[in-house]
Amino acid sequence: MTRAEAADRPDGGAPKTPDRLRRRASRQLSQLTARSDRLINEGLAQVDARKWHYAVLASLQDFGPGSQAALSGRTGIYRSDMVSVLNELAERDLVERTPDPDDRRRNVITISAQGRRHLRRLDKVLDVLHDELLAPLNPAERDQFLELLTRLLDHHTRTS
Asked: What is the pLDDT of residues 69-84, one digit of tens each?
């Protein structure tokens, strides 16, 4: 019996989740997402960070400076929430805001040197958390799982 199956059988008896639910990818993804969110949120909270901090810093590191609107599009964070995320990061000197020379009403957000160091630290924290999340899978299965999830998400992102 796998670890997942054992978790679904608290007393070692019959599964507590009906097979018909366990066979539904949507149900399994939903359940895994809830557990993943809890694990990641709790793990990042231990280092005084949030998943949105990581998303913004990673976007700035990988794609360079951007406006709040561009960052919203890159990360999936609602524009209305982006302001508070950026305020938190700016208060910690992890990002810098400068007026856009082409449009003074808009700011350009840039990752700071301290933000790059913090991002590297968060990468290490997330590596450990993902090892815990994906513990039942060997390295090849982890790669395949991520490839399949990415393919599904890319497909549904293009069609929506």
From this structure: 999 999 999 999 999 9
